[in-house]
Amino acid sequence: GGRGGDSGEDASEVDIKKIMKTIRARDLYPVIVFSFSRRACETHANDLMTGKTQLDFTTQEQKELIRQIYDNALLCMAEEDRELACVQKIYPMLERGIGIHHGGLLPIIKELVEILFGESLVKCLFATETFAMGLNMPARTCVFTEVEKFDGKEMRVLQPGEYTQMAGRAGRRGKDDRGTCILMLDKKLDKEELVHMTCGTGSALMSEFKLTYYSILNLLRRASGEEDAEYVIQRSFHQFQHTREVPRKKRELETITAEADGIQLDMSDAKAELVRLQNATRDARTALMHHAVDPEKLTRDILKPGRLVRVRDGDDEWGWGAVVGVRDLPAEAVPPLEPDKASEWGLESEWAKREMRNRRRAIDVLIHCGPGVDEGVLRPAKRILGRPGKLAEKGCTCEIIPVALRLVDAVGAMVLTLPRDLTDANARAQVGLAINELHHRFQGKAVPELDLENDLRLDGDEFHESMGRWLRSESELRAHPLYAASTKDGGLNEKQIELYRKKASLMERARDLKKEIKTTQLSKFRDELRDRSRVLTRFGMLDEEGTVTHKGRAACEIDTADEVLVTELMFNGCFVAMDHHALVALCSMFMPVEKTNEVYPLAGAAKEALEGPVKQLREAAKAIAEAEIDFGVRSQPAEGEDGRHEAVTEYVDSFKDALVGMVYDWSKGTNFDAIMRGTDMFEGTFVRAARRLDELMMELHRAARAVGSTELADSFEKGAESLRHG
User: Fold this and answer.
1) DSSP code of 159?
2) Cα separation of 33 and 124, whole Å?
3) 99 close to 124: Cβ distance less than 8 angstroms
4) Among 161, 5, 106, CA closest to 726
5) In the beta sheet, which residues pair with residue 319?
6) What SS3 class is residue 123?
């Protein structure tokens, strides 16, 4: 299968050629051109080799030296491999001083490119960001073909640490007085985003320590398994980071306690009880809306221009406003995860990524603001108690402000018609009058809202529990004898109520800090240890007393793949009826590979031998995913059966069959070139997967030996040996 392609003289080709010509004219090479996909590297390199003007960076003497080094590299390869398309294709580029470096290349080709670049024979190198991570290969100039990358979930602008790592390659010590960085932009980039990317501080290093089934089984296999687990956790970097936060939290607790003590109010009287109920209702509402404030639920169709939304930021009630638009905030404007959440969830967890997506998505809302906007003071406008249609202060204006999704307290059922030009203050004021009329019309009643169940399609046990808590809190609040007076002008001293509310909030924060200081990460890991142990017990790898079983001893040997699924297949008879060629092909489904457009065909004897086992693997994976959901190990992206099905499907689909046919034919002795012609997968990807698969087969060999299955162990060993040729 072909990759890259011969593009014509299109705009992108002209751009990369113009930049390379300028770099050559100003003697700014060697240059590293960073792209964020392997295919983009090859496409850009091909762009310099095709069209009316083909670039050449080397002299005749350098070409002869490149040929000599290239021929010497070929001597390290088998004769049949010297004719591989990828080996023949790279030479015309190298001869012109153009190189490619990414994880999909054969190891010998990558080493050849590194040698030539180190000797300044490759003047222009197209590479992925991994080239900047471990190799000391500086250049005079770095070019970024784009400043956004896909992080596995979404496209985002480079983080400061990522940019610095790559841009730091520009400028060679002892040779250049400066390094040059060139950014190729195909769309507008906000100034704030650019400044953050180039000058911002790097992300904090947070521990990603996780308990795995492999570590649990090997710890429990010892005489005092749980104590050993605690021993490891207590001495982990993860626990160290949590412990390091304790002094800061103690200082914050002292400050908050002193501030709360300075407010001389009796928190046991009726007013304090009213404030407590108000805070409880507010928190219950926040927990309820947490289910709704998700970009997947609050779509752009729901948050259409003119849609009414109620905004609340802690104790600050902004009231109702009209949506103007939906957008994503620049990276530097998104608050990072709090240390305790980052430590609890892990920065790469689904919870953390969902929270950061929610924080990044914002809506522009036209809403009443208090006096002082022109001076940079932004605060909510106060309304007269009992007359919500009237503002309590002069100088209030209607402004468009960005509001994070998490601050949306309610979504109204009504949609206002907005003027076309909202840059005009008079037009904004007209919308403000409409919002005031809305407050006046519904005073004493609830403004109609979208139904969370029917309109936003929320469901699931957690949602219904949150809804129940909010309804109970709301009922208790309305039943309080001072509630009616608190909603009327003159009924209660509003400033005094605010003091009660402030002291209650300070006391609540103090309680939370005390709990966080006392709670260690060890207790959270105990919970995870318990949940994962239940999964292992369900599949017979631990007994009811937490002792590692015969089956569990086999899982103790598996570290390269999903240990629970592999062991389940070993003991349910899936592996027994297969020969070593089919065995190694099936196990290739545990190897992570890139997405391919041309799937290698599975036909004939291979299809007959593997169709049943592949189905068995997927059924076993489904059972494991459902057990993990039952015991809280695996989270669901949404509530209800749909969310459960999505979580199970995601896990099952993670075992891809892209390598199955390729590995089967390779195990049978098929020529490497013939296999690679049947797919668009990179050669280096297949080689790396085969090496890792060899490791897995030997782990399975040791696992089978550990449980006394010598016949199966021999099959695994034969499978590993069948990979070691060519």
Assistant:
1) P
2) 7
3) yes
4) 106
5) 311
6) coil
Distance CA 284, CA 281 (A): 5
3-class SS at 459? coil
State phi, psi for 499 to the nearest 5 degrees. -65, -40
Q: Are 720 and 584 spatial neighbours (Cβ–Cβ below 8 Å)?
A: yes
Q: What angle do CA 709, 713, 717 make, to 5 degrees?
A: 175
What are the φ and ψ backbone dihedral angles of 535, each rounded to 5 degrees? -65, -45
**Quick one: how far is CA 27 from the chain centroid?**
40
**pLDDT at residue 7 in the model:** 40
Give alpha helix (H) positions in 235-349: 237-261, 270-289, 339-345
C-alpha distances (whole Å) from 358 to each of 149, 152, 295, 381 are 19, 17, 7, 26
Give me the numbers of helices (H) and strands (E) for the chain, helices first please: 28, 14
Q: Work out the angle at residue 178's Cα, subtended by the Cα atoms of residues 173 and 183, and round it to the nearest 5 degrees.
A: 120
Return the structure tokens found at 145: 């073909």
Answering whether pTM is above 0.70, one says no
CA 106 to CA 691: how far, in whole Å?
12
- In this structure, the number of other CB atoms found within 10 A of the CB of residue 581 comes to 23
Containing 700, the helix (H) or strand (E) segment is: helix 683-706
Contact between 238 and 248 under an 8 Å Cβ cutoff? The reply is no
| 138 touches 29 (CB < 8 A) | no
Beta bridge partners of 147: none
Does residue 98 contact residue 124 with C-beta atoms inside 8 Å? Answer: yes
CA–CA gap between residue 712 and residue 439 (Å, rounded): 75
Residues 675 and 600: beta-carbon distance below 8 Å? yes
What single-letter amino acid sits at 504?
A: A
C-alpha–C-alpha distance, residues 97 and 61, integer Å = 12
User: What is the bridge-based pairing of β-strands 141-144 and 180-183?
Assistant: parallel
Residues of the chain by 3-state class (helix, strand, coil), percent to 5? 55, 10, 35
Q: Where are the alpha helices (DSSP H) in 269-424?
A: 270-289, 339-345, 350-360
158: DSSP letter: P
Q: Please, which residues have CB within 8 angstroms of residue 76's CB and are 6 or more apart in sequence?
A: 108
Structure tokens at 704: 């089978």
What is the three-class DSSP state of 316? strand
Distance CA 249, CA 255 (A): 10
Please tell me the distance from the alpha carbon of residue 599 to that of residue 336, in angstroms, as a whole number: 40
- Counting Cα atoms < 13 Å in the Cβ hemisphere of 416 gives 26
Tokens of 572: 């349910």
Within 10 A of 406 (CB to CB), how many other CB atoms are there?
A: 17
CA distance 195 to 395: 35
**Mean pLDDT (10-residue bins), the chain, 726 residues:** 42 72 88 90 87 82 93 87 87 92 90 91 91 79 88 78 88 86 82 82 73 85 59 70 76 87 69 70 72 64 84 81 82 67 61 71 87 81 70 83 83 87 87 84 72 72 72 75 56 59 78 73 73 92 88 90 92 89 93 78 83 92 93 78 84 90 91 87 89 93 90 92 84
Structural contact between residues 229 and 368, judged by C-beta atoms closer than 8 angstroms: no
Q: Are 212 and 558 in contact (CB under 8 A)?
A: no
Return the structure tokens found at 631: 């015991």
Residue 642 in tokens: 């749909």
Closest to 663 measured CA to CA, from 542, 546, 555, 580: 580
**DSSP SS3 for 90:** helix
DSSP 466-479: HHHHHHHHHHHHHH
Residues in the chain: 726
In contact, 560 and 643? CB cutoff 8 Å: no
Integer CA distances (angstroms), 488 to 52, 430, 493, in order: 80, 27, 10
Reduced to 3 states (helix: H, G, I; strand: E, B; else coil), residue 655 is coil
pLDDT of residue 681: 87
Residue 501 CB-half CA count within 13 A:
17
Kind plus residue range of the DSSP H or E element containing 98: strand 98-101
| 679: amino acid identity, one letter | T
Q: What are the structure tokens assigned to 256, written together?
A: 């908050």
